[in-house]
Amino acid sequence: MRGIAAALVLSFGPALYSSTPPAPRSASPAPLRVASLNLTADEVLVDILPPDRLIAVTRWADDPSTSNVAGRVPAGAFRFPKADLERLVALGPDLVVVSEYTDADFLRLLERSGLRYHRMGGLETLAGQRQALLDLGRAVGAPEAAARLAAQHEARLRELDRRLRGAPRPRVLYWANPHTAGAALIEAAGAENVGRTLGLQGIVPLNSERAFMSDPDVVLLGRWPGALDALKAEPLLSRLRAVREGRIVQMPNELLVTLSHHSADACWYLAAALHPDRVK
Questions:
Q1: Can you give the residue range of the structural domain that contains 192?
Q2: 186-217: pLDDT as tens digits
Q3: Which of 230, 237, 232, 244 is nearest to 214 (CA)?
Q4: Taking the CB of residue 159, how many other CB atoms lie within 10 A of it?
Q5: Is residue 163 part of a domain?
Q6: Is 262 strand, coil or helix?
Q7: Would 242 be classed as within a structural domain?
Q8: pLDDT > 70 in the chain, percent
Q9: Which of 42, 229, 233, 269 could hold 61 in an S-S bridge, CB 3.0 to 4.6 Å?
Q10: How many structural domains is the chain composed of?
């Protein structure tokens, strides 16, 4: 599946979750050569670092179907198609940025290499994404720039909450054939997340029978090629009331999968689709 799961596991490894993060390291000089090994850091670093200090990003950063900074990454930055410690060492970064989704085996190799690294965490919530942005800003020596982005993120979400106060909350099912997710995006957009209501956490398979019985008011899809056709071709899900009545929202993939400060834009996009009378 190429969808939200693909973006959340941009650690280039087989494990979805890795081991407990290591203890924080002592303060170090601001790094002048920063390498990113996850898309969330790519999106943040493009906005807070001078171009000459960002020496590497993931290949996903250039893909407009997954990245909110496509076309803005410095041309001289190396693009990692996958985690490659040998290439990383050859680049000689002062700081490597990984995330809580980085594969545990690769993280152990990185630790042994002696390279200094920063690990982003707490990305499963909007508040956690904001804190991860602030922590990354301090790690790369750009706390003021990170604080500005975090303040904008918080202000946009507060304004969205104000506009949605008292609005009816449609029941929304995110469908990624056959996965769903209990993401905070749906709640922040003024809706009830069917995945969370079903007690699901993270990105998990949801069989069509259970999805059909949940009877959502709206089905949320990414704009992956064939996503809508696959939903309408599914024997049970094609009979959902929401599908029959055309209550389907397809979000731009780069917004649907983002775990950076661009998540505020994602919340606004979905809220505008669900509550057009309140959110433009």
A1: 171-274
A2: 999 999 999 988 888 778 899 999 999 999 99
A3: 237
A4: 13
A5: no
A6: coil
A7: yes
A8: 90
A9: 42
A10: 2
